[in-house]
Design goal:
Mean pLDDT: 91
Helix content: 25-40%
Number of strands: 18
Largest sheet: 5 strands, parallel
Distance between the termini: 51 Å
């Protein structure tokens, strides 16, 4: 019998099924189930339609996370959020409200998710939780209503591919440039329907913020989930969360210590791909797709109108600290509007305490409250027709961030470009 991949090990700990071969259908026990302000109201409506006033399977494992239009700037979002709050009170369900930040990031910070956990919600980028060795997955409103009621869901075991990164990441390149290099090689469908395990010295060297960046773009590679856990010391990787995990243990049926976070040496992979980053230079994803990746130097000099810093891909403190290092004592180009949206309240607090927020403010950035921002209509950071926008978000499809043209870059490239008023190769 062959060894197991990472996703097979997580699934094995959450199902009674004997067959975990790729393509098998299994029923998974869910450690956490969530809904956000977009889709949350429909989850409640579906729940009431199918289950009436019946209690959820376990209120301590069920959450709402409001992170899209926060605080609400239009009546539909305000009504949807309030509908969720009222139902949550009836059910005894916790709400991470409009001041908390991006739900997946809040879950990591609060110890709701850790290696080996199964986590579903209405967020299409919940596979970001692969950054901490957990299985996260976005699902539809009816699926999440069912998960609220039963604490389970069915899932097809995906095949796993191995991505081996050759070379080390060197400044001015960042985890975002590494991610774009992988996306360039795989394309939008190179990992379609697959889980990915990432290996190599560059992967081992990533901090949590960098692993979040890489995991968050697996969706744009067509993947189910990515695990940038590499072959390094996994105990070290979760040290910062051990105290939170201990505080949360009673909430979950499975504890992280039950899992071994290495694929077995004889695990079977559907494909192994090598990505060579020796000599990597800063990259940029040009319109109209995230996989339209080119070296920044090829489009350098293009005038820009705006910059967005944030999103679940690059909204961590480390991202903003890197920008602050570039812009300290300088000011944005006169014609550039630049917006900063921290991922969570915790990140915002770090920015305040460290002086990073002051540095960005002095340089001319507009700093907003925590949340997604810049991702879809109704958020901060939208573009108008003819506008050229640099963004650290994860998608640049036409209309995704407004009517203008959006280029995806690292926070460092965005910072240098904002100072010069044109796309600029970072120093």
């Amino acid at each position: 019998m062959p060894g197991q991949t990472l996703i097979q090990k997580i699934f094995a700990a959450h199902t009674d099924a004997d067959d975990l071969a790729p393509g098998s259908i299994v029923w998974l026990d869910l450690d956490v189930r969530t809904a956000r302000d977009f889709g949350g109201a429909n989850v409640v409506k579906n729940y009431r339609a199918h289950y009436g006033d019946a209690p959820v399977a376990d209120a301590s494992k069920t959450f709402f996370t409001f992170d899209l239009v926060v605080p609400p700037s239009n009546i539909p979002y305000a009504e949807n959020q309030q509908l969720c709050r009222a139902w949550a009170r009836e059910q005894g369900v916790c709400v991470f409200d409009v001041d908390a930040g991006i739900g997946s990031h809040v879950a990591i910070e609060q110890g709701l998710v850790y290696p080996g956990v199964t986590f579903v919600g209405t967020d299409s980028h919940l596979n970001i939780l692969g950054a901490v060795g957990a299985f996260g997955q976005g699902m539809g409103d009816q699926d999440i209503a069912f998960a609220f009621k039963t604490g389970r869901t069915w899932f097809e075991v995906p095949p796993t591919m191995k991505v081996v990164v050759k070379g080390e990441l060197r400044p001015p390149c960042t985890a975002r440039d590494l991610t774009l290099a992988i996306l360039r090689d795989l394309g939008a469908s190179g990992a379609l329907g697959r889980a990915i395990e990432f290996y190599g010295p560059a992967i081992d060297a990533l901090d949590l913020a960098g692993r979040i960046t890489l995991a968050s773009q697996v969706t744009e590679m067509g993947g189910i989930i990515g695990f940038p856990m590499g072959g390094g010391n996994q105990e070290l990787r979760i040290t910062n969360y051990e105290s939170r995990i201990k505080n949360q243990e009673s909430r979950f049926t499975h504890h992280a210590s039950r899992f071994t976070f290495y694929a077995d040496p004889d695990a079977e992979y559907v494909e192994t791909v090598e990505v060579d980053i020796v000599g990597l230079e800063p990259l940029i994803a040009c319109p109209p797709n995230p996989d339209n990746v080119r070296p920044v130097r090829e489009v350098a000099g293009l005038p820009i109108d705006s910059v967005f810093l944030g999103s679940c891909t690059n909204g961590r403190f480390e991202d903003f600290a890197a920008v602050a290092e570039v812009v300290r004592g300088k000011h944005l180009a006169p014609r550039v509007m630049a917006t900063v949206v921290p991922a969570t309240r915790t990140v915002y607090g770090q920015m305040l305490e460290s002086g990073v927020l002051q540095t960005l403010f002095d340089a001319g950035f507009i700093i907003s409250n925590p949340g997604c921002g810049g991702c879809a209509s109704g958020h901060l950071g939208m573009t108008g027709k003819g506008q050229i926008n640099l963004s650290t978000s994860n998608r640049n499809f036409p209309g995704k961030q407004g009517s203008g043209d959006t280029y995806l870059v690292s926070p460092v490239t965005a910072a240098w470009s904002a100072l010069k008023g044109e796309i600029t190769v970072p120093k």
